[in-house]
């Protein structure tokens, strides 16, 4: 090695394939989302759609696992609920939930986890400072655009609300989701510090 050469720096690379550890993480986080429904929700508004901890665990799954594995984990949870396991809020299950005002939120969960995870991977690969703030921003983007966006659509389709009424019905969920996203970002930063390879692989 010449005097002008330097030692290679550590870099990150995307995971090319899932390992048994990845499969285990997908199962664990699917179970975590399901377990979050065991805590009773707080019904809000005329349609009674409850405030639950699901959004916290859905967003946390994305922030920790990244887009693909988060989509798989929350998608697995959703499919098991559709198949009949009572793991939706209030112990509900089955395809009948797609006819309720909650349908938009349920459909949004895997998509929000995937988008949150995709944004989180960018944050983890490219930043060191202000990660908690950036992860919170990633969570809020997917929460507002997907969870609340599809939630409003669910109110309009199944609740027969016009857009203005559906938008107002969705507003009470914003304060709680903001707090949950703050908590999710803080927890995610701690997990990434403890397990640096959980989202991206370090390559020497």
UniProtKB/TrEMBL annotation:
Its main location: membrane. The chain crosses the membrane at residues 21-39, 45-65, 70-91, 103-124, 133-158. Keywords: Cell membrane, Membrane, Transmembrane, Transmembrane helix, Transport. It is found in: Cell membrane. Signal peptide: none annotated. The keyword Membrane applies. It comes from the Bacteria. It is a multi-pass membrane protein. Gene3D superfamilies: 1.10.1760.20. Pfam families: BioY (PF02632). Belongs to the BioY family. This is Biotin transporter. The lineage of its organism: Bacteria, Bacillati, Actinomycetota, Actinomycetes, Micrococcales.
């Amino acid at each position: 090695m010449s005097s002008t050469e330097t030692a290679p720096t550590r870099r990150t690379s995307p995971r090319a394939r899932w390992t048994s550890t990845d499969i285990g993480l997908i199962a664990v986080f699917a179970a975590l989302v399901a377990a979050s429904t065991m805590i009773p929700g707080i019904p809000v508004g005329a349609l009674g759609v409850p405030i639950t901890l699901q959004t916290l665990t859905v967003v946390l799954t994305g922030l920790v696992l990244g887009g693909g594995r988060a989509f798989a984990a929350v998608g697995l949870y959703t499919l098991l609920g559709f198949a009949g396991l009572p793991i939706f809020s209030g112990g509900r299950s089955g395809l009948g939930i797609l006819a309720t005002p909650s349908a938009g939120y349920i459909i949004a969960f895997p998509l929000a986890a995937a988008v949150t995870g995709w944004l989180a991977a960018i944050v983890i690969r490219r930043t060191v400072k202000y990660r908690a703030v950036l992860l919170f921003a990633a969570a809020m983007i997917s929460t507002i655009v997907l969870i609340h966006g599809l939630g409003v659509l669910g109110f309009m389709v199944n609740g027969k609300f016009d857009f203005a009424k559906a938008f107002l019905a969705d507003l009470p969920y914003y304060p709680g989701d903001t707090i949950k996203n703050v908590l999710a970002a803080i927890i995610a930063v701690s997990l990434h510090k403890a397990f640096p390879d959980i989202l991206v692989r370090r390559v020497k």
